[in-house]
Amino acid sequence: MAFPLAARKVRALSARNARITGFAAALFAALAATPAQADCKTSSDGVTLAVRQIQTHLMVAALSCGHSTQYNAFVNRFATDIKSNGDALNRYFSRQYGGSSKSQLNAYITRIANEASRTSMVNRQGFCEEANAVFQSLMGTNPGQLATYATANQPFSIQAGSCTTRTAQK
């Protein structure tokens, strides 16, 4: 009869340990996410990420929609913006990931390119029409205003201020 009592104690301890482990995991996840979220809300990091997302979506459009001429015009028009945004992106990833920033940045860019590519495969016509409209709109935007464009227009359902940098899954 002592065995059932011991089994109940083991189950009670296991349930208690599971609750503690779950709480600790949730706390760790919250603490790990807080610096990036707080930093993003008080700086231009969200806009930096949004600009990179637009650039990547347009690159996919160049390949998927045959818009290479428009993409080249975009890159030439906004070369300075793209360069300074790339520098800001490197600084952001360096702050967030330290020594693994380069691999994390590459994984992030790969993930957003894959997502854009999937979107183009699901609805090629819609994706290409939106990309064409974005290219046309950007040609009416002054160089030096790419970040402003990203914030004001949010094409491809990109939300400026979203600092999620979830990277590609292996």
Cα distance spanning the termini: 50 Å
Biggest sheet record: none
Cα radius of gyration in angstroms? 22 Å
Range of helix content: over 70%
The number of distinct helices, counting runs of at least 4 residues, comes to 7
- Count of separate structural domains: 2
Shape: globular
Q: What number is the mean pLDDT?
A: 77
> Which class do the helix and strand fractions yield?
mainly alpha
Binned strand content: under 5%
Architecture overview:
This protein has helices spanning 2-41, 45-64, 68-77, 79-97, 101-122, 124-139, 146-153. The protein is globular and about 40 Å long. The protein is an all-alpha fold. The protein has 7 helices and no strands. It has 2 domains: 1-34; 43-157, no CATH class. α2 crosses α4, α3 (68-77) packs parallel to α6 (124-139) and α5 crosses α6.
Give a quick rundown of the structure.
By secondary structure, the chain is mainly α. It contains seven helices and no strands. Helix 5 packs across helix 6.
